[in-house]
Amino acid sequence: MFAIFQTGGKQYKVQQGEKIYVEKLDLEVGAKIKFDEVIMVEGKIGTPFVKGASIEASVVKNGKQRKIHIIKFKSKKHHMKRQGHRQPYTQLVIDAINVK
């Protein structure tokens, strides 16, 4: 059984026992979290969410993704700006998908 839920402005398709990376959540490692914004589960499509459905997950780790480099260049002016960015994330493991 799979479900689709949203968090951090993004949607994720998950199954029980799966590990996923989501936008950073302010939770410690080992903490439990419950997502109620389930968009689809067992073929049921919500309007906008499925009533009585939830997803339970545990935090595995918090970290940052690999660095990406941004370069802005203006031709003929000999002006260049370099910048780097590392997006913070939270890794979750899906414990249960509940449907009433």
UniProtKB/TrEMBL annotation:
Keywords, sorted A to Z: Ribonucleoprotein, Ribosomal protein, RNA-binding, rRNA-binding
Single GO biological process annotation from the record: translation
PROSITE patterns on file: RIBOSOMAL_L21 (PS01169)
SUPFAM superfamilies assigned: L21p-like (SSF141091)
GO cellular component, one term: ribonucleoprotein complex
TM helices/strands, residue ranges: none
Classification via InterPro entries: bL21-like, bL21-like_sf, Ribosomal_bL21, Ribosomal_bL21_CS
Source organism, top-level taxon: Bacteria
An MF annotation (GO) of this entry: structural constituent of ribosome
Function: This protein binds to 23S rRNA in the presence of protein L20.
Similarity-based family: Belongs to the bacterial ribosomal protein bL21 family.
PANTHER family: 50S RIBOSOMAL PROTEIN L21, LARGE RIBOSOMAL SUBUNIT PROTEIN BL21M
Subunit details: Part of the 50S ribosomal subunit. Contacts protein L20.
Stated name of the protein: Large ribosomal subunit protein bL21
